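Protocol step 4 of 6: structure prediction from sequence.
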Amino acid sequence: MVLLMGKPKTLSGFDAYSHVAARLADAIALIAGGLLAYWMRFGYLVDMVERYQWMMLSGMLLGLTIFSSCGIYRSWRGAVRVELVVRIVHAFVILAGIIFTYLYFTKTGERFSRLWLGLWLTNALVLSVGARTVAYPVLNRLRRQGKNRKRVVLIGDVNSCLIAHRHIVSQPSAGFDVTAVRLMNEGGCHKIDVPDCRAFDSQRDSSIVSDEVWVCLPLARGNLVEEILSSLDHCVGNVRYMPDMKGLRLLNHDISSVAGLYLFDMSCSPMSGKARLIKSVEDKLLAGLALLLLSPLMLFIALAVKLTSRGPIFYRQDRMSWNGVSFEMLKFRSMAVNNEEDGVRWERHQSSLPSGGF
């Protein structure tokens, strides 16, 4: 099979179609889940109250936006499905938090059945995960039969390309086929069972036509990797770099660009840029929802503390956050006021309140 120096072809549009299909499936799941929940709650669907219809439509549009932000619609070809399910659950938690927060602050919660809201989101989650549970085995079966597969060209040394080839062959359901190998030394082609194998030529191989091009070289040969990537500027496929197994541990870390330098983030907070904003909004929404749900219990505890002892309801203390900034911590007081004037003591010697034991 000749893959070199050909006219660039339009890449397969299956991934784009699959993403559209996934969005359509989630939209149907949100609408169908709401209709099913309405029938389960009220026992009929005829003359459905209009505000429930608007809630389902708004929830569907908001849900699709949240799902996209959570990375649910990226390509999951050959990926671990557990991570996808976790992301879907995470997205539904965010959706639920936004909906309940909106209903609380607009004081429109009494216009909707809480049971319906819970059934709606639960049904939609089950339908969304269920659709993927059915779809992925079907796609994997088609890929094993040779349909909807992506072509891969490996470029690198013998050992690294051999490892990549073995992994791809051992997992046919991933949907990849190695169609060509370009080695730094042609003498190793006899070790790899790929007919189209020869030495890499930066001139001849500058316009490789393939769905995927994987550069397989050790991290120590970074200069050579840069030269190969430079020669692949006109490649129309996805170009990826796969370090050898000795550098595999570094793949668990992100890469940052600082002052023109590329650095592996070995121990860094992931909370930066857009991630920090999303996390901040998510934390506030979930915290607000938790405070709302736990407010009756918190009121009961506050009354118990106040009625069983003199002094403030809350115990305040400065604590250090993850980024080295101090903040004031609040907790329900469980000890007598000024209990630590003589220093910190073991708990069995401390004077706790009746409510503190609870």
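Step 5 (inspection) to follow. Strands lie at 150-156, 176-183, 197-199, 212-216, 238-242, 255-258, 261-264, 314-320, 326-332.
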